Amino acid sequence: MGGNRLYRALSTALLATASGLVRAAEEELSEFVPYEKIVPREIEDPAAGFDHLWYEVMVDITIIGVVFALLALYFLYRYRRRSEDEEGSQKPLSRLNIIGWALIPAFVFMADDFFLSANGWQLYDLYRRVPENSLEVKLESAMWTWDYTYPNGVKTYNELRVPAGQPVVLRMTSRDTIHSHFIPDFRIKEDSMPGRVTYLWFYPKEPGEHVVSCAEYCGQLHSRMYGKVIVMPREEFDAWYQAEADKQNIKLTKLGD
Ligand SMILES: [Cu+2]
Questions:
Q1: Alpha-carbon distance 90 to 166, whole Å?
Q2: Which is the most buried residue in 26, 69, 121, 187, by most CB within 10 A?
Q3: Is the pLDDT at 120 greater than 50, yes or no?
Q4: What average pLDDT is seen over the chain?
Q5: Centroid of ligand 1 to alpha carbon of 199 (angstroms)
């Protein structure tokens, strides 16, 4: 039978393609070089990517949500039935036409959804890849405070001072319940919780002050759980960092001392 032969030919072709793809993938994997080694990575700012994607989502939902809704309203009005016994003069759509008119626009919108979510995954990947030269600060959150500890042992509370021009990564945990470290200006937010280390990184470029707020309801004084990020010029930060270490009496012990 023709159908049977066609089916067999198709499945043979599919199998051949699939095994070819698998072989190609295996070859590629055997010479796999991490992406970072191929392209030396400049520091991309996730905040810029966030704003770009946000803008794109806004434009798309405006076109799909507002323009198309207005058009539909207009058509509803324009082609309304004008009297009780009025009947349309168009001949009814064929079944194929009906399905096509429903499915094709749906796929067009879905293509946009897939496009946006692919962009979202890419951005998420950027949010998760911490640049190597980041300043690493430990953060322990608690009701109702943010406690930061710098690599040299300096501690600050509700105030995170960082140098401009260097990415910062926070390794976070919590003493009590779940909090969420939110810095709106840097478009970054991540939960902190007991028994697990989470992280977030951001890229402060210019000196300035930014609000930090808890974004996970954590008890009665949740709304008071805020602080700030102070971005300082490099030299100012270095001076502050050293002075603070002296003030807090932190001696960096060297091997052999
Ligand atoms: Cu909190």
A1: 67
A2: 187
A3: yes
A4: 88
A5: 16
Q: Are residues 154 and 105 in the same domain?
A: no
pLDDT digits (tens, 9 = 90+) for 127-148: 999 998 999 999 999 999 999 9
Distance 172 CA to ligand 1 centre (A): 13
CA 153 to ligand 1 center in whole angstroms: 24
- Ion ligand 1: protein residues whose beta carbon lies under 5 Å: 179, 214, 218, 225
The whole domain housing 228 covers: 135-247
* Per-residue pLDDT, 257: 45
**Integer CA distances (angstroms), 120 to 54, 96, 117, in order:** 10, 35, 5
Same domain for 123 and 210: no
pLDDT at 2: 57
- CATH code for the domain of 187: 2.60.40.420
Gap from CA of 175 to ligand 1 centroid (Å): 11
Cα angle vertex 183, ends 181, 188, to 5°? 80
The pLDDT tens digits of the residues spanning 2-24 come to: 567 877 887 787 777 777 777 77
Q: In whole angstroms, what is the distance from residue 54 CA to residue 188 CA?
A: 14
Task: Indicate whether 48 and 101 sit together in one domain.
Answer: yes
pLDDT of residue 249: 78
CA of 3 to the centre of ligand 1 (A): 65
Report yes or no on 151 lying in a domain.
Answer: yes
